[in-house]
Structures are given as structure tokens and as C-alpha cells.
Amino acid sequence: MLSLKYLSKTNVSRACGSASAVSIRPNRVRAGLHSALSVKEETHRRAERRVCESVLEQFHSQYTEELGELWLHAREVLLNPHCWQYGVLLNRFSDHLDIKSVLKSLGYYSLLCQPDSPIARSLQCLVHKDAVRLPTQRHRDGWLKQYYLLNAASLLPVMALAVRDGESVLDLCSAPGGKALAVLQTANPGLLHCNEVDKSRYEWLVKTLESYIPRSLGDTLTMTNEDGRDIGSKKPEMFDKVLVDAPCSNDRSWLFSAGAQQGELRLRERAKLPQLQKELLSSALAAVRPGGLVVYSTCTFSRAENQSVMEAVLSTSQGVELLDLEEDLISSLSGHFKFAHLQPPLGHLVVPEQGRTWGPMYVCRLRRSS
């Protein structure tokens, strides 16, 4: 187990809203962000990545049947990275006031516009109507990054988890760390335990949180590199809330598999994913206390990895009930996200379309009643 206090020598005086050790002048921020809004060679390279035909063929066959016309719109988006939009999650542990002001002057606006919502007040994610992408900030010792770039739909599982101050939270499949970072933007949990089974992804997770979170949260944040399927038995009923952002057919990245051989390998491994996902979800339900919440999410359209996993777990697990997401949460996001009408109607699926390229992101919430 690794505690954040044993990471690099990040020296921040306060846990919340602390000043950056490296000042960034507004005019330099503005100049850098203006240039970032132009079409760059990096963007062109992303747009020109080669599509893996075998993966596309499999996806097209399956998703045409499962999603119909929605898939045709989503396919147009996924095959054109040049049109992808990016959310900018501001880091409350860093000084980001200058950059927030500049972003708003450049046409960015808040994803969440509910002034009475605690999450809307604390989770500051800015989006743009166009497909622009800011440069990624580099890690520097003694300085916390100001923002994290992400698919804005990936915040939906965090909002569904609705973490409150003092709660004990488990992020079962945590790498690369964006959702853990988002959890820490919404509340001050008593414990946030982040786990990742893959060694290289675990190191990525550690680096991410090291770059955004002050050392003063070392007693709150712990990280482990173990099989998430074992945590339920090792830590039974220890957490108030558990997030299972499960390994899945990552539809965006799989379409651009590096060659036909890798694509074929991924498709063969794909059939094994639902069983792994069910085992991870069962582990999460064992790790959460009675009355606690478990949120399950993926970044795939696949019914086998989404609704079918939920059906299987609900039919075999006693004392577990399905909880729909709050109507006001879904309605507040419907202007940004395109939600599919799922059959069977278990959970919510964000489907990308032109002008709203967020997703895919599937989210479903359970409560352990006993």
C-alpha cells in the first residue's frame, strides 16, 4: 500500500485552494491557450490515425443491432478524432484563477450550471462548443497542475457516486486517475482508496495523483496494486461508496488499434470481459457496507458489458437493488450529453454525436441493502 505522503517533494502549504509554487502570468496563459485553440499538427496526427478494419467491422455489426441509428451518428464521431471535444477539469488544489478567466474569455463555459447543487459548486469542468484541446501540462516538482483534460462524460460516474465529506471511498479500477481526482474535487472523503491491478497503469495512477494532489492529503489517500476481485474478501464492508470503472472494450481507442494483429487479439479477449466485470462488481458489493452505494461504469456501447452485466449481478446477488440516477442530474446534462434509450432500461448510456462528442460512457448505480 502506498500513501501519498511518501510521493515526491510536492510542497503545498494548504490542502485546499493552495497557491502554486510557480506563478503563471495571465498574458502568458492567454497566449498559450490562444495558440492551443488553433488546429495543431498533433491534432492532425490524431485525426490521421489508421482505423483497424477488423475492429470496426465487429463494432458496426454489433452496435447497428443494439443502437440502430444512434450508432451511425456515433460512428461518424469516433472515426474522426479531429472533431472530439475535451473537458477541462480545474484542480481546486492549485491556483487556477488566471487560467479559468482566460478560458472563459476564449469561449469555455461550465458543464454544470446548477447554482444550488453542491457538486456544481465544487466540480469545475469547463467545455467548449468546438473541438479544441489545450496542451497537457507537464509534471514539475513543487507545483500542482491546474487542470486535467478528459472526456466530460467520464464525470457522470463521479456525480452518480455523490461522495460526501468524511465518507470512505474505494476506486476499484482507478488508473489513470481522472475519476479519483474528480472525487477529490467534489468532497473531502475520510479515505479514498485507489486500486489498479496493472503495474504500468498503477505507476501512471501514482504519477497522476502526485501531479495534482498535495502531500497534506497523504493520510486520506492510499493506493494499491492488486487484483480488484480480491478486495471484497480482504476488506469486507469497509467502504461507504465504491466506484467500479471496469476494464472494457474501449471503443474510442480500440478502433485505432496499432495494426490488424493487435485488433484481432483485442477482439478475442473481448469475450472474456463480461465475466471479469461481473467478478469486479461482486467484489465491490462485498467491499461496500450495508446501505452503501456502488457505481458501475464503462466506456463502451456494448450491451454485453453494460446492461447484461447488471442483469447477471442483480439476479444472483441478494440484498442488492438498482437505483436510478436523479432526474434533475440527467436533465441538467441532457443539453450537453446525448442519452440513449436503453433496452433493457438498466443504467444510462452517453452516445457521442456531432457537436456533442462526449461518450461513450455507461453508468449504473446499485445499493447494498443488507
**Averaging pLDDT over every residue, what do you get?**
88
**Percent helix among the residues?**
25-40%
Rg computed from alpha carbons, rounded to a whole number of angstroms? 20 Å
Uncertain residue segments:
4-26, 38-45
Largest sheet: 9 strands, mixed
Distance between the termini: 29 Å
What is the global morphology? Answer: globular
Count of discrete alpha- or pi-helical segments spanning 4 or more residues: 15
Instruction: Tell me the number of strands.
Output: 13
Assembly state of the chains shown: single chain
Short characterization:
With 370 residues, the chain is α/β, with parallel strands linked by helices.
Overall description:
- The protein starts with a strand and ends with a strand.
- It is globular, with a radius of gyration of 20 Å.
- Strand 7 (191-195), helix 9 and strand 8 form a beta-alpha-beta unit.
- The protein is an alpha/beta fold and 370 residues long.
- The chain has 15 helices and 13 strands.
- Helix 3 runs antiparallel to helix 4 (69-78) and helix 13 (273-287) crosses helix 14 (307-316).
- Strands 1, 6, 7, 8, 9, 10, 11, 12 and 13 form a 9-stranded mixed beta sheet that branches. The protein has a 4-stranded antiparallel beta sheet with strand order 3-4-2-5, with helices on one face.
